[in-house]
Amino acid sequence: MKVGIIGTGSMGSVLLEAFIEFRALQPHQLFISNRTLKKLLVLSERHEGLNICRNNIQTVRCSDVIFVCVKPLQFASLIQEIKNDVRPNQLIVSITSPVQISHLENSLDCKIAKIIPSVTHKIGSGASLVMYGNRLDEKDKQILHDLLSYISKPMEIKESQARINSDFSSCGPAFISFFLTKWIDAAVEMTGSSREEITCLASEMLLGTGKLLTQGGVTPPQLQEMVAVPGGITAQALSQLNHSLDGVFHRLISTTHQKYDEDLEELDKLFDGPKINRPQY
Ligand SMILES: NC(=O)C1=CN([C@@H]2O[C@H](COP(=O)(O)OP(=O)(O)OC[C@H]3O[C@@H](n4cnc5c(N)ncnc54)[C@H](OP(=O)(O)O)[C@@H]3O)[C@@H](O)[C@H]2O)C=CC1
Ligand SMILES: O=C(O)[C@@H]1CCC=N1
């Protein structure tokens, strides 16, 4: 199988390097293009045999499956560029939540899927969210699922759930790291602790917590109960946290959805076709 990656920024590079690292693909099976050449040269220096394409059309012509890893508003011009070169048996995989499968099916004469990957795939971990378009058969679905299984845990979802699900799977690492950074800053400031030491403790704690939740058979509320003995220190701190965080997560979800709506509105203008329904929960 030959796999193309258009856009080798942050996420395109994570996918490419994870596919190689976890032996889903060998470099000679990958065909890549990016607006700026420098990023391609850096990757080709790291991975001998990688195919650098001179433009996106060449990436499309050389590949069976093509991951499009550009930002939402960069899609429309890209589609114009490649639309005459896609073939009906090719699979184009978009990795961004606001661009809808229907936007792409209306514009490209090929199979369309959408995935939302996560930076955690860099270490072969985390869930990838998978949505299949109408033109894929079972074999196509299996190919994409198998490819993603090397680097992640693929989970098929409804497209209407893509935004809220990616809040957790793909934005989540940034949100949790933000929380940890604030907590570590306070520890360093208030106790003079070594930032390095506290960061190491926090990271090990997060890894262990993740394993308990994924392999240890406990839920987040059960985990709190296991640690917070009644009348103890953790219970007191959790009560304070509960008070301080009142409404924070509702506002977080409103913010991600509002930005998604804004992007969707712009995309509706850029792509011809019917206006897309916003996610209704
Ligand atoms: N970062 C993450 O954790 C995740 C990101 N995503 C989604 O992935 C998409 C990309 O995000 P991210 O990788 O972070 O963004 P980046 O800005 O890092 O990467 C986008 C890349 O696309 C390139 N590009 C832009 N236009 C074109 C074009 N016409 N042809 C070829 N290459 C082009 C850019 O080139 P140049 O070098 O010139 O800037 C850049 O390298 C976004 O839609 C985001 O929502 C999804 C899940 C997780
Ligand atoms: O911040 C963003 O827009 C993207 C979507 C998911 C992760 N990063």
Automatic annotation (TrEMBL):
Entry's Gene Ontology cellular component terms: cytoplasm
Sequence ranges assigned to domain Pyrroline-5-carboxylate reductase catalytic N-terminal in this UniProt record: 2-97
Domain Pyrroline-5-carboxylate reductase dimerisation, first and last residues per copy: 159-262
Record InterPro entries: 6-PGluconate_DH-like_C_sf, NAD(P)-bd_dom_sf, P5C_Rdtase_cat_N, P5CR-like_CS, P5CR_dimer, Pyrroline-COOH_reductase
One Gene Ontology MF term: pyrroline-5-carboxylate reductase activity
EC number: 1.5.1.2
Any Pfam family hit: P5CR_dimer
PROSITE patterns, sorted: P5CR
Enzyme class: oxidoreductase
Protein location: Cytoplasm
Biological pathway: Amino-acid biosynthesis; L-proline biosynthesis; L-proline from L-glutamate 5-semialdehyde: step 1/1
Superkingdom classification of source: Bacteria
Record-listed NADP(+) binding positions: 6-11
Binding site for NADPH: 56
UniProt record, GO biological process: L-proline biosynthetic process
Keywords from the UniProt entry: Amino-acid biosynthesis, Cytoplasm, NADP, Oxidoreductase, Proline biosynthesis
Catalytic reaction(s) noted: L-proline + NADP(+) = (S)-1-pyrroline-5-carboxylate + NADPH + 2 H(+); L-proline + NAD(+) = (S)-1-pyrroline-5-carboxylate + NADH + 2 H(+)
Gene3D superfamilies in the record: NAD(P)-binding Rossmann-like Domain (3.40.50.720), ProC C-terminal domain-like (1.10.3730.10)
Entry function: Catalyzes the reduction of 1-pyrroline-5-carboxylate (PCA) to L-proline.
UniProt family annotation: Belongs to the pyrroline-5-carboxylate reductase family.
HAMAP family recorded: P5C_reductase
Name used for this protein in its record: Pyrroline-5-carboxylate reductase
Origin species: Paenibacillus crassostreae
